[in-house]
What does this fold into?
Amino acid sequence: MLVRERGGQGEALTVWAVWLVTLVEVLVTYSRIPAAQLHNVTGHGISLGLSRAAVRRNWPLALVALLLALVAMRSLPPRAWWGAAIALVLCASMPLFVSQSHLNARWGNAVPALGVALALWTIPSALYPGVKSVTYFPPDE
It folds into this structure.
C-alpha cells in the first residue's frame, strides 16, 4: 500500500530566511563603507549596497538555491518539475556571469538571479496542500 502526504519544507524555509538576513547585512554594510575600502567594487551609498547584494544573490546564493530546489522537487507535482528544472539550469549558469575581479552588478547577473527566484518559488509550490510526496512503506510483517 502506498500512502502519500505533503512533504515538509521547514528546513528550507529556515535556510531561505538566513540568506535573506545575509543579503540585508551585505546591503547595509556596502552602503555604509566607502568603495575604496572594499574589494573590487565601485560606486557609493545605497547603489553600491544594492549592487553588491545582487551579486551576492548570484554567488553563493545561487548554489544554495540550486540545492534547495532539488530538495523541494521531491514534494512538487510532476507538472511543476519543469519550473524547478529551469531554476536549476539558471542557477547553474552562475559561473558564467560572476567575476571575482568585478563584484558590481551587471545585466548578466539577472540570469542566475532569475534562477534563485524560481528556486524560491518551489517552496510555496511544494507546500501547496494538494501536493503529496512522501512515500510510506508498510512495516515488515
Observations:
- The mean pLDDT is 84.
- Residues 3-130 form one domain.
- Residues 85 and 110 are 17 Å apart (CA to CA).
